[in-house]
Structure formats: C-alpha cells, structure tokens
C-alpha cells in the first residue's frame, strides 16, 4: 500500500496533468461555458490549496484537496463540459 506522502504526490501530479489535458468545449458566457469555467476554477483552487497544505506538512488535507479538485474536473468531463484526449487514463468516461 502506498504511503501518504507518495499518494499525495501522485494525486497532485494527476490533477495537474488533468487540468493541462482538459479543454472547455462550450463557449464562454453560455450556461455550459460558465459551468465549465466554474469546474475548472474549483479544480485549480483545490490544486493551489493542496500545495499550500503540503508546504505546511499537512498531507491529509493536501491529499483531500487534490482529490476534491480532481473530482470537480472529472465530473465536468463526464458531463461533457471538457474535451480530453481520446484514450486518456486520467478520466472516467
């Protein structure tokens, strides 16, 4: 089983890569575009929060933040708010 530090680092890398891979599908200013922007903003905020917690040696809250951020982004992908590379292992589809 992975230790907490390794798992925290892995989830940070996964969220960072997922944010880089996902592109908004709907035009800005539309309801779907606004929803995508909110999902992306939440994911980025949780990434920043997780990094802050990790810098403070609070790995439990860091991991939780990375996980929540990833959940926001993955939910947006499942709802069709983001386009992601075909065959990507980063998302459930």
Quick recap:
The protein is mainly α and 93 residues long. It has helices at 4-21, 31-55, 59-78; strands spanning 23-24, 82-83. The protein has a single domain, classed as Up-down Bundle (Substrate Binding Domain Of Dnak, Chain:A, Domain 2).
Using only CA atoms, what is the Rg? 14 Å
- Tell me the count of domains: 1
CATH homology group: AF1782-like
* Helix share, percent: 55-70%
Can you tell me the CATH topology? Substrate Binding Domain Of Dnak, Chain:A, Domain 2
**How many helix segments?**
3
> Order of strands across the widest beta sheet?
1-2
Mean pLDDT, to the nearest integer, reads 90
Protein described:
This protein has a single domain, classed as Up-down Bundle (Substrate Binding Domain Of Dnak, Chain:A, Domain 2), CATH 1.20.1270. Helix content is 68%, strand content 4%. It contains three helices and two strands. A two-stranded antiparallel sheet has the order 1-2. The model has no long low-confidence stretch (mean pLDDT 90).
